[in-house]
Amino acid sequence: MTWISKATTTFGLLLLAHACYSAHEHSALQAHRAASLASLTASQAGVATSLPIDIAIETVVATFIVVLGLVLGTAQLRPIRWRVWAGQIEREGEEAFKDADGEIARDYIGNPFKLLESRPGFVDIRKQRQEFADWVKSQ
Amino acid sequence: MSSSLLHPPSHLPPTTALQLSQQAPKIIKEAPGAISTSALQSLFAASETPELWTVYENLLLSCLRTGDDESAHQCLGRLINRFGDDNERIMALIGLLKEADAPDNATLEVVLKEYETILNKDPTNTPIAKRRVALLRSLGRVSDAVVALIALLDFSPTDGEAWAELSDMYFSQGLYSQAIFALEEVLVLQPNAWNIHARLGELLLMAAKGSPSPDASRQLSEALKRFSRSVELCDDYLRGYYGLKLITTHLLSSPQSKSKQSDNDNLALPDTTTLRQLDELATAKLGEITRRFSAGEKGWQGYDETEITAAKTLIEKDSSVTIR
Fold first, then answer.
1. CA atoms within 13 Å, Cβ hemisphere of B176
2. Positive or negative, the Cα torsion across B163, B164, B166, B170?
3. pLDDT tens, position by position, for chain A (139 residues)?
4. What is the DSSP string of B9-76?
5. Distance between CA atoms of A59 and A53, rounded to whole angstroms?
6. Which helix (H) or strand (E) holds B318?
7. Fewer CB within 10 Å: C terminus or N terminus of chain B?
8. Is the pLDDT of residue B155 over 70?
9. Does the beta-carbon distance from B10 to A93 stay under 8 Å?
10. Which residues belong to the signal peptide in this entry (chain A) (predicted)?
């Protein structure tokens, strides 16, 4: 999915650059023509022509293509509804919050209410050590 | 850096704890030991992040659990270096390390005395107050621990963790109604905690099954509501559906007398049709969850293996009863 968005964005940027270049060329041409006309007949000067319609259309289309490419490239949105979000945590665990590189998102907290059951402030460290030692023995 | 180091590790299985503590020497070597306060040096050195200190704290807990005391002392040393040993949270960690190192009960009593000295100076030192409660409970003096915890809740009544601990202590003493009350306080503070709703449902169910008191039918109907709320707050919540299944089976197999519930219509049990529908829903959901988990479907692997096994057993028991 990412390469599609990247290709679209690049294409849009190329189009945009092309439109800018065309506009620049057009204005340079206009200035040149005006200068040469002025040298011939002083009375004809100041014919300001607007930008051709195709350059304007190209600019607008290019902008939309860039926007489309950027929108396609956004990360997947998180659920808004509470029960869907909570269900995702329970059902998928950490997997749901991994990005393309397999790294878990920084803001992943899992079930935030798990703390009410594990209660780190009241941890009984000696019991935990004992349990761990027993587990090692059983391995 | 693993993300699980950013969260308190006490609920992790032993394998993960071992894995985490084995990373400890590497992390201690790589991570900066101290952050300089001088402006010039901070231009060149790595910037200080809050995560760094969270990682040290959680690493300390994991190392203590697995018995890697050397790394634990190193972590603590760096934390003290940064925050000073008069920081409340660091004081609690120092106490924790002393508890873990203590060879016998006499040393633990000394640690307990130290906690009391600190609390005499500053009675609102919450982390130390919590450690004192935990140590009292660990020493088997549960009633003292309850008194200490109630004192803590007196000056800090919005501490959900403390209420949950109180509930657990009452539960370990068999005092169901007190445990239920404490857990209801947690729900007042955290009304969206779906696991606490399920936990309260479990407590109510145990209380109702344990005592054939006139209160039992009210407790059963409340437990039914709690389980329903937990699955309403969380889609595909295995624990919630498990409880729902348990309670609907219980209610359908032993019909409660209707006459008693007429006086408090607020908590009246739903009629048999509704119960049957709930039962069917829970069975269907449990079946779906276990099937998809066992099939290894992507996006259904977050459940606990043992919980899935328990759910399977429950469904099989239920279906064998139906066939008979």
1. 17
2. positive
3. 588 999 999 999 999 999 999 999 999 998 888 888 777 765 544 555 688 899 999 999 999 999 999 998 887 788 889 989 888 888 887 766 666 556 666 667 778 888 888 888 898 888 888 888 888 888 8
4. -TTS-HHHHHHHHHHHHHHHHHS-S-----HHHHHHSPPP-HHHHHHHHHHHHHHHHHT-HHHHHHHH
5. 10
6. helix B305-323
7. C
8. yes
9. no
10. 1-22
Q: What are phi and psi of A98, to 5 degrees?
A: -90, 140
pLDDT, position A79: 86
Measured between beta carbons, the chain A residues lying within 8 angstroms of B65 are: 125, 128-129, 132
Asked if B218 and B267 count as a contact pair (C-beta separation under 8 A), the reply is: yes
pLDDT band per the 50, 70, 90 thresholds, residue B39: low
Written as six digits, the tokens of B187 are: 């729900």
Task: Report the alpha-carbon distance of residue B151 to residue B146 in Å, rounded.
Answer: 9
Q: Quick check: ipTM above 0.90? A: no
Which of A134-138, B40-44, B85-89 has the lowest average pLDDT? B40-44
Provide DSSP, A10-44. Answer: HHHHHHHHHHHHHHHHHHHHHHHHHHHHHHH-GGG
**Contact in structure between B171 and B207 (CB atoms under 8 Å):** no
* Closest in B64, B164, B298 to A117, CB measured: B164
Give residue B171's pLDDT: 94
* CA–CA gap between residue B92 and residue B83 (Å, rounded): 13
Instruction: Delimit the domains of chain A by residue range.
Output: 2-72, 82-138
Tokens of B124: 């609102």
CA distance B85 to B13: 31
Query: Which tokens in the block code for residue B41?
Result: 């040096």
B132 interfaces chain A, CB cutoff of 8 Å? no
- Contact call for A114 and B11, based on CB within 8 A: yes
Residue type at A1? M
At what angle are helices A125-138 and B88-101 packed, to 10 degrees?
A: 50
Quote the tokens at residue A26. 């057009």
Cβ–Cβ < 8 Å for B67, A133: yes
**pLDDT tens for residues B246-269?**
999 888 887 665 544 445 555 667
